[in-house]
């Protein structure tokens, strides 16, 4: 035989050319499809939004608390009480995962079994057997809640791609425990409540840790349909859903058989709170602390935080019990002439500046009503004299309490306008101490002219009262201020000259649980000698011979300055009518500033009589001060004389003092006198004294003959930003005013 020939084996593709061509074409199409899909997915992913930890935490509401941690305000109807992973009960999280994502801790950001079940249920739904169910993992649901709409009409392919991609990012960047924590706090669970801790408090007034197994199962079953399973409106459906959650938990060995039996036997309405109890409670707190909340929110804004962008947990210095007492007293009709008379009060701790309580007005029935306590639209009357006139004279010129002042009629510098004391009372010579205690006016005006606008403005700025224009003339006996400003300014006098700005906010807590504390910070606003001498002079005011003898409190050392503003003769109000009444007083522990008046002071009958200001109104101040003097930490003792003060003579209220750290001011001229016969009589709106037997002032200032065009009843209510802008403008202008006034004085 010859050599066996090799037989060539025919390749399969040649035997089945048509099939091969079909496979080849399909492969190419598949590759093109994969490439196209990959390109499409890559394009979609490019527009994926950035998701931050802040957004995942989603503590979107801001809340405010008093000094004891009680909630007094919340920013929104949608409530969020964030719960950390360590405070989430294991039973609750296990029941939740048994119901929603049993393979959560095993999956890499998505659930294969969940997707399969979702696909199978979708097919069954298409043929009319059951409903389609979602197969999203916890990560995907969290992304959906954080970034995308939950509406069915928004479920597009693009969104599912982005959702899947971001879920993978979550898986790679956060631990499973962190992701679960985010999700548990993100869910909308009905009743305007977001997160499990929130709905727990909404329904039962408890934290998750305090709930029974039954109650935890109720909340674990809410996520799929919070409206359907609303405990208030559909308890039967809730019971059925709870039992399913419990049975699933039993099958998955999340709970024991005994726990299951006990839980299913428990009524779903056990411990259920009255509907809207949280909202009603918060609303009540807001109304009780309306003025304080308004001021605290303004201070938050002043610190540079926008609550619409940065949710915060705001801790304050508010003493709710004390604020409630102040409100109860200030609401009492016995302290007023009629129901339309208004008042405003600020009470601070001189040693810290903490605003302990604040009252913004009577008959407030809605949240964020007008806060008269921080309004600067009413004149202080004589209440400003120690701060604007006599304080700078002691501080910069070293005046003693015995410094002799001219109490005769006085013409304002550069004019022939004449100021007189009430009833034309004239003092040829009166000591600074007596001038303050009887609230004489012309000595105060002369003192401001002697001190000069520049120095007076400097002194005011240091105690928190910056002025747009340097004060002069009739402002010596009346300056537009707020009770907040007066309480903190007099607090500096009480505190030996160390000033603390009004402190409402003590700390801010951010969504990442970081905390910014605002510690007590004081600054030297005046010398200790100035503060002590001012205090010693004002101690005579709530005593016989002072303007408020009815304010005297036995056993309590307090200093005080009153102020009243009357009407012009042209307004045709009774001679005994007062437009504004002020009570400013302090002890070592408490500083109180109180204003009383009417929102429409030019309306017929809207005035305070001398008798009411001397008795009824003083009684409110005295009762408040007496209450605060009885507190545990109250210090009602005398102020100790610093070494920088010499006692010249006398004892007690008759003691006379001088600073021994005084400075010598060269080139100071006493105010010039003029021929009274040639002067045009000008009785400015000088402050009345409360004791009409001592001294009064007739007011004939054209400025009060009609209601100012700029004055509106609603003008008490200030937009936060407007108030901040105004304050900044005052600060900006203060230096200009001081500079120009200084140049004017130096040029004389």
UniProtKB/TrEMBL annotation:
The chain crosses the membrane at residues 20-42. Keywords: Carboxypeptidase, Glycosyltransferase, Hydrolase, Membrane, Multifunctional enzyme, Protease, Transferase, Transmembrane, Transmembrane helix. Residues 77-247 form the Glycosyl transferase family domain. It catalyses: [GlcNAc-(1->4)-Mur2Ac(oyl-L-Ala-gamma-D-Glu-L-Lys-D-Ala-D-Ala)](n)-di-trans,octa-cis-undecaprenyl diphosphate + beta-D-GlcNAc-(1->4)-Mur2Ac(oyl-L-Ala-gamma-D-Glu-L-Lys-D-Ala-D-Ala)-di-trans,octa-cis-undecaprenyl diphosphate = [GlcNAc-(1->4)-Mur2Ac(oyl-L-Ala-gamma-D-Glu-L-Lys-D-Ala-D-Ala)](n+1)-di-trans,octa-cis-undecaprenyl diphosphate + di-trans,octa-cis-undecaprenyl diphosphate + H(+); Preferential cleavage: (Ac)2-L-Lys-D-Ala-|-D-Ala. Also transpeptidation of peptidyl-alanyl moieties that are N-acyl substituents of D-alanine. Residues 344-590 form the Penicillin-binding protein transpeptidase domain. InterPro entries: Beta-lactam/transpept-like, Glyco_trans_51, Glycosyltr_51/Transpeptidase, Lysozyme-like_dom_sf, PBP_transglycosylase, PCN-bd_Tpept. This is Penicillin-binding protein. It comes from Dellaglioa carnosa.
